[in-house]
Records
---
Amino acid sequence: EYMGTRLMDFCRGSVNDTLHYSGKLLRCLCCLAIIGPLLLLIGIIVLASAATDSRGAAIKKYNAAVTAWTATHRAQFATASFTNTASSAGSVALTADTSADVLADTDSKLLTYSPLKYLSTAGMAGSSVPPTTSDASGTPLTVLSSVSGGAPSQFSVPYKLKQSLFVPNSALPGDCATVVSNTRPQCSVVCPQNGGTWSPADNACKFPWATTSLCVKFALVGQTFSPTAAPGSDVGCLYHSAPQSSTTSSAKVASWAPETVAKKQSSEVVSPAAITLIVRSSSDPYVIASEITNGTFHFGLTRAQKAAVGIILLVIGALFCCGVYGPFVFLL
């Protein structure tokens, strides 16, 4: 009976492996067939986009934000004071931080400015989360905001301390298999080896993600600074990509959430005391740059660069088409 079971598993594994590698070969052939026309299409689109100076428009918008920050908004923000009353050390005043925020773009046309944000490394209040807990909200961030020493206003911002999110099996190392295989490792084995937890019900691997820092943007409303979702869609400072809960896609989702997260091992304890808190102005040029560039902090290609890329794609696409379809045309 044992030998019969082993034989059945071997046969089933052989069939699954054959289907897997045949599928890969078929996808390769399909790619070869469509890559030429696809490159031609992309080349035409990129070449057409060179007609508009989107980079110039983005830089102009950014420079306008820098001018407004230098003329008005920085001085207003400098009169503010912020206190985190939900830190691991009790009430802690945030300190002014004038360290530079570096853009990925070094164009000389970009105006420079004097940065200002408020920072606390005292951590957040609350209990640590053990490895057995998959999702946990932190003690809400409570901030006192005042302007020029006036009466403070209190604001509360909830956040997620720990969340378990799926990583697609295709993103796991080793080209793992979710079916019986004779040549590939099982995803259910690879997952815990890389610090994840295998979910048999979802047939997928999930990892704990922990908040490492919180950044909240404030805008001057009346006589005080208040958390604001603009620019963006949440009170977080910067546009960034965040992991998602899908079991089928490796893509990350765009987010203006205040949390910056990092993947942890399933055996790690997550502590709120390690969280850094940052407060920025909604008029901060770095926040505006994040919105304009979708978090890349690069303002895009020049018209000349777009034209060059478009022509290169057209040439490569034409060569692919000649190499793939040329022999068939010759035979016909």
---
Amino acid sequence: STGMALSLVLRSTANELRLANPTGPEPKYVVWCRIDQKTCLKCVAAAGLEAVVVPLRPATSPKTPKKPQIAAQSEEGPLDLTPPKYFVQSHADDIRAAINGCPGGASSVAAVLTTTSCFAPRLPDNVLAVARLCQELSVPHIINNAYGLQSPSVIAQLEAASHNGRVDAVIQSTDKNFMVPVGGAVILGPSKVVRAASKLYPGRASASPITDLFITLLAMGRAKYVALAHTNRLDLLHKYFKPKVIAFAASRGEEVVWDQRNDISFGLTLRNAWRSSSKPSGVTQEAVVAAAIAVGSKLFHLGITGPKVVFPSVPSGTEGSKGITAQQTVSGLTFPNYGLHGSSEHCTDCPPMLIFACAI
């Protein structure tokens, strides 16, 4: 439902722009910062619009981190988290270039679509910088905040962007934030934007998502939800989950891939998964990736469907390999190293990883 809500907002926003400027360029482009999650791109195609992909760059360290990345303590002693060398992030300069590069310029852009909740090794988009850019260029700004309501840092970014720039709508999932059954989404924005999206919906929607959310909010109350989603989750994250994952990784010669700017999603390298493989094999890159894929397959067949394995492509001929591809085509656009969110150049040294979350 998050994808459907995004489609409705994108389509209604494009319609409003067309009505406001009937003689200008058709607003058919959505400037979209790459995120390797299919719904985020399919919602653009479903709205009848064309995605202009903004590639990501290797991440840099935060300028003013709220909490320094200190070596975590465990029973085995201090253990360092992996620096953000595998992470990627978007840049406002690249978004500006993408807008200006569209035929017709900013007038032909229906919206800039950013993301605040994403899987490692990707960082949330700097929605404040993008909001200021969209305000400057008079371009609508829509934020995909799928499961970001449970992250205090994400909420702070959204508030800053809303007060200091342009944010037309923020869309989030009900099941990913409020522990209700799958099938609902919440659109936050000016009443004009919300009404336009609502009127575009074809047919009568089920009342079940609204009823489920209403009952849950009545039962929990604001204080209990905030305590569970923020205080309790962060306590679980920093006092239990993260130290346990770090200790587990260290015991197997692996690294934890985590950055404080994405406090929900984790990665665990799988460089040594081949050691437990029953198939005798040399330690080639192909063998490492194949063993990691086997881990993901075993988890899936055990009914553990949350974590997923991502890996870089292994070209044929590399160390005598037949090649393993991580390329995916979504809505007619092809992406290398799908799941790692980056180009082949950036992902050359990336190990395969198991990606999982610490969330309610």
---
Amino acid sequence: MTETPSANQGSFMGTRMRKAGERSSQEAILQGKNETPSSQDAMMSLKSLSSLEVVYKVGIFAAVVGTSKFLLPVLFSLEHVSDKFIEKVQSWDWGTVLAALIGVCGYIIDNRNNRQAEIRQLHIDRAQNQMNSLLVPINIAFHGLLFAFYGFVDSHMDDFDLIDEPVLGGSNPPPSKHQWTSSDKTNKSWVSWWAFNHIFSSPTGKCPVALPYELPESLSEAIRKNPNSSLGAHYRQWIQNEWLPGVRDIAEIISQNGYLLEAIPAKDLELRFNDPPMSSGTWNRTPRGMFMSMWLAYSRSWETVLAQWESGDFSRIRPTTGFPSGLYFFIVTGQDIVGNLQKDLTGQSQMHGSRGIKLR
């Protein structure tokens, strides 16, 4: 005979298990000893049990398969749950509970989507500010300097000897200085060749970070030897009225919006430029704003030259600070990175235009 559990052993659990056993016996008699209960009958049997009875049946099965050592402590702890609490739980409106759960999940999802939209908008706003306030304005101003250079050198092509001009960068030989590429005299092929090979290239095939000159060496030497000549006078006028205003414009843009710079990866700087002009000797340890800092120093150094000219001393034709021509490629590379980001975020950019956008 089965021993009746005492009160100390848990009359609550014993009562529940005994009732579950009685129901199981009755089901076995009705179904027949050799007949397997159908899934529908099994579901009806489960529905006829209370929640705790189902738990106890699961616990008995778990004990059979060897997992009762984990489940039984939990089941025995349920012995201390009052019938009143169980009845209260069973009286809950589970439709309301489910609706509340769905509402909480919806809030979490909406909050996550809103946060992602905020981050996306921050990226869009920053990229637009970078283009509008820093990258595009410097690009335009730098090209203005470049065309001012073309115009000045073109107007004095006969004032210096090309034989003294070394071939620093590029493999193509210099063309004739009077060979034209278009009807526009500011686009002489020689001037373009010199700018490419002496400002934007070097013997290493990479771009120089800064240069100790702005003009072809033979032209600078002709100005230096005879500063009181018409060539010298025109040069000083050109610096004060064309070159230096552009230099100052770029310096002003950097001073106001330099914080919007795009940090070019060190590996890209190593591929594009020669070694950085810093003691570290590596681009990994070089501040990304170095090109802009050099431009500010270059702009200020012209003030010293102007002060000497005002005093009548024309012995110096340029500042001691190098011309940071590398700023151009730094800006163009930044434009390419930010332009691609704009393209991914909005489908268009100031670098790539509105390609792929279908207008209605």
